Amino acid sequence: xxxxxxxxxxxxxARCELSGEPFSDGQVFYTCxxxxxxxxxxxxxxYSAPAWKEIRKKLDPAPYSFWKSIYKAPVKEAGNDAxxxxxxxxxxxxxxxxxxxxxENARYILALMLERxxxxxxxxxxxxxxxxxxxYEHADNxxxxxxxxxxxxxxxxxSVQREVSDLLAEEERRAAEIAVSVxxxxxxxxxxxxxxxxxxxxxxxxxxxxxxxxxLAGEEFAEGLGPDPVxxxxxxxxxxxxxxxxxxxxxxSPASDDDExxxxxxxx
Length: 268
Prior knowledge:
- By secondary structure, the protein is of the alpha+beta class.
- The chain has helices at 49-55, 81-86, 88-98, 104-116, 154-183, 193-204, 237-244, and strands at residues 28-36, 41-48, 65-70, 120-127, 132-138, 144-149.
- Helix 3 (88-98) packs antiparallel against helix 4 (104-116).
């Protein structure tokens, strides 16, 4: 097949491609990745288990890759955007979206780190004319990440780890600077011109009020006064990477083979 240029993350539409019915929380469905000649990339289609059983042998062309998943209804979580951007997952999402060739090695290492943390689940690998493509599914929201295996040798891992470490440190530094700039001005510290004028006016009239009566204890107050080798996905490299870095917590999502219908090159 041609060299893939489309690396965008593919999210589920949370509905069956065949019936159009939305998925419910905990429902089993099948994710299928198809080659898209129009974009020289991939498209994603999801099928409910009954629809998959009905249509799997009729699909033409057959999916490039497929696996079984369990749908998890999205949960809104409060969080700081700057912190999310500085995280390992946030960095991988940004690098995949930017698709800069200079970050290909970093994307691979970041994906392995997230695989080790069970945030990403390695679902399939496919060999192309020029490289091996790794397919990952996010354990929580089902997003599909496509990452190229750059064919790193073991003696190259350390330098790439340093590169990723430096990138993460830079992201954290930028996030910290943003947080400091936001907190630099606390509410109530600045006075408006109207408040300043009012303060000045009170100051000028201070001497005029010196002779005003002051209420004593028990008396009424005076009037007016007041009171945020080549390494492969799923290999021992994931353990080595985890020793160097600590990633975000993730959850597991089951992925299994279909005995009757296998996509070409499916990993056992």
